[in-house]
Amino acid sequence: MQDVLPTIEEWRAAGEEIALATVVKTTGPAPRFEGAKMAVTKSGKLVGSVSGGCVEGAVFEEAQRVLRTRKPRLVKYGISKESAWDIGLACGGGIEVYIAPLE
Amino acid sequence: MSNYQKIKENIEREELLARLIVVHAPEGQEIGAEMLVYPDGRTDGTLGLADLDRAAVEKAMTLMRQTGSKTYPVETSAGPFEVFVDVFPPPPTLIIFGAVHIAIPLVKIAKECGFRVKVIDGRQKFLTKERFPEVDELIEAWPDEIVEHNVKIDSNTYIVILTHDEKFDGPALDVTLPSPARYIGAIGSKTTTANRNDRLRKAGIPDDQIARIHGPIGIPIGAREPAEIAVSIMAEIIAVKYGVGKNKE
Prior knowledge:
The complex is a heterodimer of chains A (103) and B (249).
Chain A: H1 5-13, E1 18-27, E2 37-41, E3 46-48, H2 56-69, E4 73-77, E5 94-101
Antiparallel strand pairs in A: 1-2, 1-5, 2-3, 4-5
Chain B: H1 3-12, E1 17-24, E2 34-37, E3 43-45, H2 50-66, E4 70-76, E5 79-88, E6 93-97, H3 103-112, E7 116-121, E8 137-140, E9 157-161, H4 166-176, E10 183-186, H5 190-202, H6 207-210, E11 213-214, H7 226-241
Parallel strand pairs in B: 6-7, 6-9, 7-8, 9-10, 10-11
Antiparallel strand pairs in B: 1-2, 1-5, 2-3, 4-5
Helix pairs in contact in B: 3-7
């Protein structure tokens, strides 16, 4: 959180609408730990990371949706037998990311 | 005040806090309910169900001491939930004895790694904001005076002694060895280290206390330049922080 806090504060001061994405679960090898954060603004700015570059683009899109609906979402990325994920993690692990509007 | 605001203020006060979020709920129920839990057991908000709150707070109270965030399943009368316990630990503190040339890159790297950094030296000339622009605190004192300067050393504190002069690293070790510091490292060659350990043993310091000192300091990467030595020291500190590798802790 400390890594994204200064930037979030600047955005808040500028009146940006912000969504916060947090890694809440990891399975197998995962590039970032539970609690890792990324923040996104409606205007398209981004700070922090949830995976080291693998799924940030997809999380960014989900965050835009969360900002439109104002409803939090849990999104899963990784390798799954049930469904073919178009966005995967090269390391073979899986992560769950919780995205919510920042009040 | 929003939870974000409360978390931000708590982080600024450098106090421990956990935020609980419902990230999985039984069919037909919404996710996103939040609650804050403080280390003294105080809570703020509700996850929506009394038995969910109770079980989740209990988890949070144990987890926040281990300072790691994790998602937990919680069975309730209303079905299975999953609660993410997001722990916001206070930052670790690095105390550097000796405002020497290696301290300059070490302060920068430690700040990048999220440490609060204090540099202690009795020589005002070296202890300047120009040399250490990122430092949190510069303390003009000799090692044996730090008690008077209210320098707190707890289990979240890491000590690096860069003075490599027995006049100063002796007193620095005297005050830090009995402390609960998570890491104590002292710079010096193998010879300096052996001599220092001999001296400590003769002074009656028990072997298990002497074994706490990481010296020669840092992991072996063949470092020569001050910045390289700082990287090697920081790498050792990170390994101790996460309990990894050949560490004496």
